[in-house]
Amino acid sequence: MSHRTAFRVGDIRFGRRELRDLAAAWVALAIAFTFFLNPYLLRALQYGQLATGALVEAFALSLITVGSGFLLHELAHKVAAIRFGQVAEFRADYGMLGLAIVAALAGFLFAAPGAVHHRGYITKRENGIIALAGPLTNVALAVVFVPLLFAGGFVGRVGTIGVVINVLLAGFNMIPFGPLDGKTVLTWNKLVFAAVFVPTAGLGILLVFVGLF
Description:
Helix content: 55-70%
Low-confidence stretches: none
Mean pLDDT: 87
Largest sheet: 2 strands, antiparallel
Number of helices: 8
Number of strands: 4
Order of helices and strands: EEHHHEHEHHHH
Distance between the termini: 46 Å
Strand order of the largest sheet: 1-2
Strand content: 5-15%
């Protein structure tokens, strides 16, 4: 991990490479979700009828909602890890980011932008809290987006996508499997895991069901 500081907020430091990785992940995910959430744009592009205004608006929506949801999720892990005395930095997975864009163009959803890597002595409880910080941040973001649901036009669409994406991110990341946050939280505290997983996963499934039918 690099220790060269390019930007600092209080005790939270960011190196040049880390800032570059965060920006790349933010933009790449926004591009992927622009086409995944708006398949008509891809069809318009194929027939040479893509309107620049529609593309810019769709990209801005993804940048504000999906991009911020992923970005702040990872930054929450970093902040929590540093609070527990860890050395922590975000590293983008450029191969996975490229795959996310290709998958979106093919009509599939795939997003694994990278992860916050941290090292140093840590307890099981502290590790669980670091893992939990990401999904809880998505829950908080979903709440922040709720008031925008009642606005019209672009702002209303920001609210809708912001709520849905962040609820899905929270629920998905709390699945107790593989490298997902849920497995670490479950290992630490089963009651905490259930208190977060059940409502987020349940609401996420409900939103998917409503969206499909």
